[in-house]
Every structure is written in structure tokens, then in C-alpha cells.
Design brief:
Helix content: 10-25%
GO cellular component, one term: cytosol
Bound molecules: the ligand N[C@@H](CCC[C@H](N)C(=O)O)C(=O)O
Enzyme class: isomerase
Shape: globular
Structural class: mainly beta
GO biological process, one term: lysine biosynthetic process via diaminopimelate
GO molecular function, one term: diaminopimelate epimerase activity
Order of helices and strands: EEHEEEHEEEEEEEHEEEHEEEE
Function: Catalyzes the stereoinversion of LL-2,6-diaminopimelate (L,L-DAP) to meso-diaminopimelate (meso-DAP), a precursor of L-lysine and an essential component of the bacterial peptidoglycan.
Radius of gyration: 19 Å
């Protein structure tokens, strides 16, 4: 099957974007993996599918697959690219669109400077909804909130890591590190991603706080490995930092691929306040590719 695609990136987190508004392509997990493959396919951290929505008042449906072929609930950098895609392809002329995702409704807005701001909805803190299995674990009071001290393996010398656990529609575990460039992302990332306490696996964030308004962040993403940036990871890290008493309500997150600005008014009384994320969304190229049949 020959398909048209658009390659996009947001702060270096890269995507293959597919227009399925005129009909579903019916791709299998293996075919998503092929598109994401950097040697045999196009190459991407995630595949984004743009579909029509059935609910009145909702403009589009946005479906996300990780590079490993698994469907996931949410993708922040992808949401900004989604917005640029539907505008550039003439699928809408609206400045704000309402988009259905597996995690609920989000609302990307195109700014005059070309960046995109996304209302990502509220963070989720209840362990069962992350999902995170907290049975028998004691939360450690930390800076006005809590962290969970998890042994990363059953070996005697296993590191025990304090993690802030929350969901932005998808699961995140965030730890504070003194120096993000020297952080053990490659070694601890896969262990945290597949820790048995996270039944649907988890995205593992490593955050260095530089000031109350500036952090550096690296994320080992579930289903994709370390990426140059993770939008939901940036939202989760900032929300965690605010709840831990370390950050103000507006924070610039410096990733390896660019800067994302995250705003959350939750500590002013309403933990259900939405998180806003602003950052770049860039089209790289478009093309066609033959996707092998499976079987
Ligand atoms: N890169 C994304 C997150 C994509 C999904 C994530 N890997 C997961 O499995 O939850 C972002 O920008 O948020």
C-alpha cells in the first residue's frame, strides 16, 4: 500500500503525520513500526493520525502510536504539530480547534508568532488513575507534596529513586537530578519505564531545577526511548516541581531539542486547573512511501 505522509517535529520530537479524514488506512502495529523505523521507513518517535470526530462541537480526532507500534493516550509535542498540520492542509481555518484524544479533549491554539499553545487539560494525581500500584508503599512527604521511593530492581545494590508520579492523560514518573547532562537516563530510563508498579509502563523524566522559572529536562519515553523533547513530560515535570514547592506557575523547560513554556495555576487553590504548553511546531517534508503488507 502506498501512502502519503508529512514529517513534522516539535522541539525535535519527530512525527509521521497521516491524514485519515477521508478514510482510515487500517495500519497494523507492525506497519506503524515500519513508518517509525529510521533505517527502513520514514523515521519518527510517534505516528499521528488525523481523523474526523463524531461528537458535535469536536473538530477532529487525534490518534497516537509510539515508535514501538503501541497506541497511547496523549502526546503534547504532537498536539502542536497536529494543529499546524490541519491548518497547512486546509482541513480547518480555525485558530483554536477542539480535538478528541484517548485521554480526553484538548484544545490547541495557533499563535500569531507561529508557535502553538495547547490546553492539555488537568493533571491527574490519583495513583490508580495514572496507573501506579501504590499498594504497601509509603508516600514520602516532600516539599508540600510527596514522592515514592522505588527500588529499580530486586538486586541488593539496586538504586532507590524518589519519583513524583502523575498523569497528563499518559503516565509520568519524574525525578530531580543535580545535572541533567550526567543523569542516568539510558540506564534507569528502561528500568523505570517497565517497573512492575506501572502496569501500563511509564514515561521517565529527569529534571534539573535551575531557578523557579527555568528547568532542564530529559525524558525516556515509553515505547520510544529517549527523545529530544516530550511535551507531556514537560507538563508533568513542571506540575510536579510546582507541587513540590520548587517552581512558579510559569516555567521554561529546556529540552535537548528546544524550549517549551509550561503554565499551571494549580497551586493557587485548584489542582484541577488545566496545564498550558507553548512551543514550536514545524513541517519538515512530505512524501509517499510503500508500506509493506504484513503476513
Ligand atoms: N512525545 C510525546 C509523548 C508520546 C507518548 C508517550 N511516549 C507515551 O507512551 O505516553 C509528548 O510530546 O508528549
Amino acid at each position: 500500500m502506498r501512502i502519503r505522509f508529512t514529517k513534522m517535529q516539535g522541539a525535535g520530537n519527530d512525527f509521521v503525520v497521516l491524514d485519515e479524514t477521508r478514510g482510515l488506512l487500517g495500519l497494523s502495529p507492525g506497519q506503524y513500526r515500519f513508518l517509525a523505523d529510521r533505517h527502513f521507513g520514514v523515521g519518527a518517535d510517534q505516528i499521528l493520525s488525523v481523523r474526523t470526530a463524531s461528537d458535535p462541537g469536536v473538530d477532529f480526532q487525534y490518534v497516537i502510536h509510539n515508535a514501538d507500534g503501541g497506541e497511547v493516550e496523549q502526546c503534547g509535542n504532537g498536539a502542536r504539530c497536529f494543529m499546524r498540520f490541519v491548518r497547512e492542509q486546509g482541513l480547518t481555518d480555525k485558530d483554536v480547534v477542539r480535538v478528541q484524544t484517548l485521554a480526553g479533549l484538548i484544545a490547541p491554539r495557533m499563535n500569531a508568532d507561529g508557535r502553538v499553545t495547547v490546553d492539555m487539560g488537568p493533571p491527574i494525581f490519583e495513583p490508580a488513575r495514572v496507573p501506579f500500584d501504590d499498594a504497601g508503599l509509603d508516600a514520602q512527604p516532600t516539599g508540600g507534596w510527596q514522592t515514592w521511593h522505588l527500588a529499580l530492581s530486586t538486586e541488593a545494590e539496586s538504586p532507590i529513586v524518589p519519583l513524583a508520579v502523575l498523569s497528563m492523560g499518559n503516565p509520568h514518573a519524574v525525578q530531580l537530578v543535580p545535572d541533567v547532562d550526567g543523569a542516568p537516563v539510558a540506564t534507569q530510563g528502561p528500568l523505570i519505564e517497565r517497573h512492575p508498579r506501572f502496569p501500563q509502563r511509564v514515561n521517565a523524566g529527569f529534571m534539573q531545577v535551575q531557578s523557579r522559572g527555568q528547568v532542564k529536562l530529559r525524558v525516556f519515553e515509553r515505547g520510544a526511548g529517549e527523545t529530544l523533547a516530550c511535551g507531556t513530560g514537560a507538563c508533568a515535570a513542571v506540575v510536579a516541581g510546582i507541587r513540590l514547592g520548587l517552581l512558579d506557575a510559569r516555567v521554561d523547560v529546556h529540552t535537548r531539542g528546544g524550549v517549551l513554556t509550561i503554565e499551571w495555576a494549580g497551586e493557587q487553590g485548584d489542582l484541577g486547573a488545566p496545564v498550558f504548553m507553548t512551543g514550536p511546531a514545524v513541517t519538515v517534508f512530505s512524501g509517499e512511501i510503500d508500506v509493506p503488507d504484513e503476513g
